[in-house]
Amino acid sequence: WADTARALLAHVGGARRPADRLTAFAAVVRHLLADPVLPAELLPPDWPGAALRDAYARYQREQSGQVRAHGART
């Protein structure tokens, strides 16, 4: 799980076009559904779950801001 999460983080970091970012973050969501969400004391120190969730949360905020900005213009 961790290796795939790191690969997804690298992929979303390099995705620039909106369609590529959407596709990448769809894969992130699918992967997060399989996160075992263990307590912190059971996770290895370099577990990428939090970083992947944070990346997705930033993407959600970015998209929400764009929707609000578009609504304000219309």
Automatic annotation (TrEMBL):
InterPro entries: PaaX_C
Single GO biological process annotation from the record: DNA-templated transcription
Gene3D superfamilies, per database record: 1.20.58.1460
Domain Transcriptional repressor PaaX-like C-terminal: 29-69
UniProt name for this protein: PaaX domain-containing protein, C-domain protein
Organism: Streptomyces coelicoflavus
